[in-house]
């Protein structure tokens, strides 16, 4: 089969050609954001290890990297023995990626292709697709949809995907400080005489806004109120677009501590299931920190729970036009009469919360983990 010739310096990777319609394109065109991902040691090392421990899947193979960014995963493919790699990338970071490919003398093996995965034309199907399409709580950014578009368009039958599947986990948590902090964000709107204007009609709206934000940051596992985990398994080899756009996570947690439950904590793991070994990327509260942190969905009305009771409910995810999800959080205690709470959370409005559990913010070598994702969209 023929291969693409080395890509000449592009004349289309210019500012004026910046894609419209994807709010992440500008964000990812900046080296500082690519650097933030590259220096997430847990993330980047796990990807490289998953390729290195499955070299049989890469040796002499054609690969596609969906959303290549700086090109790092394409380089790892070559390091693992790939014959050629097409790195598809929608943002202007392609200029930087091409520079790295040229300066590392890999222009005959790595082809950086500027464009959206949904639109680009590649010369052939591939044996392996790699990608890092993971947002916080796995699904924010909705890039998994582009990953499986790559699968549907370009993966040969029997081909491999790295990562191959992922599981979202849930558990109830208690955190008085976080709850009080969230309530007090709206105190300003209680003011009945702000320069002669009564603002209190907006207090309720402000509370909805505050509790509608997912809280992204580390927390200590001690705040979890159950050993049980709600789970949602996503198999990247088979999942459909529809199943990514609308899904539900049912949970049922036997409560292990009497406390006030302030919401549902969520995180995810990802499996890289190669022919030789399965490597797992973990982002839970007991694992070394990553730039995905963990995510907490608050209850507007907290629930007092007793040890031995069961808290159950559903998280309903609906994809939205902001490359994210509206999540309906519904939970109740199985007692008579049933006590329920419900809240809407909008994943694109994340509140980064770094004030807690510094000790869990360590990387795989026990060093302080990269910080400063506040600007993330
Ligand atoms: C999370 S970053 C990962 C970058 C790089 N692969 C890495 O692991 O460091 C995702 C990259 O995919 C790109 N991207 C997102 N959606 C895309 C799409 N539909 N088509 C092409 N590139 C896309 C983004 O611009 C971004 O550079």
UniProtKB/TrEMBL annotation:
It is an enzyme of class 2 (transferase). Pfam families: PrmA, PRMT_C. One of its GO terms (molecular function) is histone H3R2 methyltransferase activity. Coiled coil: none annotated. It comes from the Eukaryota. It is found in: Cytoplasm; Nucleus. Residues 166-325 form the Protein arginine N-methyltransferase domain. Its EC number is 2.1.1.319. It catalyses: L-arginyl-[protein] + 2 S-adenosyl-L-methionine = N(omega),N(omega)-dimethyl-L-arginyl-[protein] + 2 S-adenosyl-L-homocysteine + 2 H(+). The keyword Protease does not apply. This is type I protein arginine methyltransferase. It comes from Triparma laevis f. longispina. The lineage of its organism: Eukaryota, Sar, Stramenopiles, Ochrophyta, Bolidophyceae.
């Amino acid at each position: 089969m023929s291969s693409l010739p080395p890509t000449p310096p592009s004349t289309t990777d210019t500012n004026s050609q910046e894609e419209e319609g994807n709010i992440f394109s500008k964000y990812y065109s900046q080296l500082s954001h690519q650097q933030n991902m590259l220096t997430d040691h847990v993330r980047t090392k796990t990807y490289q290890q998953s390729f290195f421990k499955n070299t049989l899947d890469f040796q002499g193979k054609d690969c596609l990297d969906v959303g290549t960014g700086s090109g790092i995963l394409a380089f790892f493919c070559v390091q693992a023995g790939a014959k050629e790699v097409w790195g598809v990338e929608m943002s202007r970071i392609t200029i930087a990626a091409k520079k790295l490919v040229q300066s590392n003398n890999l222009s005959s093996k790595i082809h950086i292709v500027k464009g959206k995965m949904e639109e680009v034309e590649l010369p052939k199907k591939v044996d392996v697709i790699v990608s890092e399409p993971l947002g916080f709580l796995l699904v924010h950014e909705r890039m998994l949809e582009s990953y499986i578009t790559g699968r549907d368009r370009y993966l040969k039958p029997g081909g491999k995907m790295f990562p191959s599947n992922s599981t979202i986990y849930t558990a109830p948590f208690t955190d008085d400080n976080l709850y009080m902090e969230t309530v007090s964000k709206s105190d300003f709107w209680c003011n009945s005489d702000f320069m002669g204007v009564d603002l209190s009609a907006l207090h309720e709206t402000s509370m909805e806004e505050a509790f509608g934000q997912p809280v992204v940051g580390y927390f200590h596992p001690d705040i979890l109120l159950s050993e049980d985990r709600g789970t949602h398994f996503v198999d990247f080899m088979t999942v459909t677009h529809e199943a990514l756009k609308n899904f539900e996570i049912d949970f049922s947690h036997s409560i292990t501590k009497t406390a006030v439950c302030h919401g549902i904590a969520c995180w995810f793991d990802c499996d890289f299931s190669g022919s030789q070994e399965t490597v797992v990327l973990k982002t839970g509260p007991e694992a070394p920190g990553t730039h995905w942190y963990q995510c907490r969905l608050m209850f507007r009305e907290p629930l007092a729970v007793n040890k031995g009771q069961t808290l159950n409910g559903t998280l309903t995810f609906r994809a939205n036009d902001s490359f994210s999800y509206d999540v309906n959080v519904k939970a109740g205690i199985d007692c008579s009469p049933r006590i329920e709470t419900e809240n809407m959370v909008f994943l694109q409005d994340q509140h980064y919360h770094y004030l807690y559990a510094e000790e869990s913010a360590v990387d795989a070598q026990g060093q302080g983990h990269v910080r400063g994702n506040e600007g993330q969209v």
